[in-house]
Amino acid sequence: MVEVYAIVSIQHNEIYVGMAICAEKRLKEHNNGKNRFTKGLMPWKIIHIEYFANWKEARVREKYLKTGIGKEFLKSLVP
């Protein structure tokens, strides 16, 4: 199972979309500064997770969520 996840920077309100086998574990990596893009915007919290059977399907959804329409959808989930 592959997870497509969206996280939001608590302080900067930036959204990051990625994919992983375990989004919770990946979130810990983002919050520990192990990702170049997310390192300066910590801390992060998960706002959305979707589950897929394989990497190919997950990648299609990840790419969609990174588009303008996808980002608008994700922004609507941020409290």
Secondary-structure map with pairings?
Blueprint lengths: L1 E8 L5 E6 L2 H9 L12 E9 L2 H11 L2 H8 L4
| Neighbour order of strands in the largest sheet | 2-1-3
Shape: globular
- CATH architectural name: 3-Layer(aba) Sandwich
Strand content: 25-35%
| Order of helical and strand elements | EEHEHH
- Would you tell me the structural class of the helices and strands? alpha+beta
Number of helices: 3
Number of strands: 3
Question: What is the top-level CATH class?
Answer: Alpha Beta
Describe this structure in words.
The chain has 79 residues and is α+β, with helices and mostly antiparallel strands. The protein has a single domain (2-75), classed as GIY-YIG endonuclease, CATH 3.40.1440.10. It has 3 helices and 3 strands. A 3-stranded antiparallel β-sheet has the order 2-1-3, sandwiched between helices. It starts with a strand and ends with a helix. The mean pLDDT is 97.
In short:
The protein is of the alpha+beta class and 79 residues long. It is built from three helices and three strands, in the order ββαβαα.
Features:
79 residues, alpha+beta, GIY-YIG endonuclease, 3-stranded antiparallel beta sheet, 3 helices, globular
